[in-house]
Amino acid sequence: MTPYSKDFPVSWEELHRNARALSWRLLEQGPWKGIIAITRGGLVPAAILCREMDIRLIDTICVVSYEDGEKGEGATKQGELNILKGVEGDGEGFILIDDLVDTGRTAQKVREMLPKAHFATIYAKPAGKPLVDTFVTEVSQDTWIRFPWDMEYTFSTPLVNRQDT
Ligand SMILES: O=P(O)(O)OC[C@H]1O[C@H](OP(=O)(O)OP(=O)(O)O)[C@H](O)[C@@H]1O
Ligand SMILES: Nc1nc2[nH]cnc2c(=O)[nH]1
Ligand SMILES: [Mg+2]
């Protein structure tokens, strides 16, 4: 059964506003050598952060998370995180950015690889929150966040006509 019972859609405007708020907080903690985006969710936040903070050195750590039962090239064990591309060094002076932390599984893995990087996210859920250095908005563990790049405008059924509410 899914652990998510609440839906939290995020608009481009809201995402942009939150990413700018994160930039303010990170600027105060600089200077920074560069940004490392955790793909793919960290890519849009990274673009906004580096524009606001005038950072030109942008790298990626490319992660694929396979669900149980799913198989992929390079997957050694089911349910495992696969690193398609890492980053040299220990991350000192770099911001490591992702869109959110949920269970903390991704965060734990990348923090092991880059222990001195400053880990930042826009959203954090309670289970992953202790692994984040700076975040903007906390949501409950049973909330599923929907990012604007995963959505499209479509007809919305009036509440009174919905069977499931
Ligand atoms: O704390 P966790 O439980 O690890 O979940 C958080 C991760 O899940 C999502 O990425 P996802 O693996 O869905 O891939 P994507 O970024 O390529 O969309 C999100 O972008 C985080 O990286
Ligand atoms: N889009 C999205 N991806 C996730 N991966 C783990 N948790 C989430 C979530 O709440 N939203
Ligand atoms: Mg991700």
From TrEMBL:
Enzyme class, broadest EC rank: transferase
Reactions catalysed: XMP + diphosphate = xanthine + 5-phospho-alpha-D-ribose 1-diphosphate; GMP + diphosphate = guanine + 5-phospho-alpha-D-ribose 1-diphosphate; IMP + diphosphate = hypoxanthine + 5-phospho-alpha-D-ribose 1-diphosphate
Keywords: Cell membrane, Glycosyltransferase, Magnesium, Membrane, Metal-binding, Purine salvage, Transferase
Keyword Transferase: yes
EC numbers on record: 2.4.2.22
Record-listed Mg(2+) binding positions: 99
Extent of the signal sequence: none
Domain called Phosphoribosyltransferase: residue spans: 11-154
Its membrane topology: Peripheral membrane protein
Record: residues binding GMP: 102-106, 144-145
GO MF terms, alphabetically ordered: xanthine phosphoribosyltransferase activity
Subunit: Homotetramer.
Family (UniProt): Belongs to the purine/pyrimidine phosphoribosyltransferase family. XGPT subfamily.
Protein name: Xanthine-guanine phosphoribosyltransferase
Organism per entry: Marinomonas colpomeniae
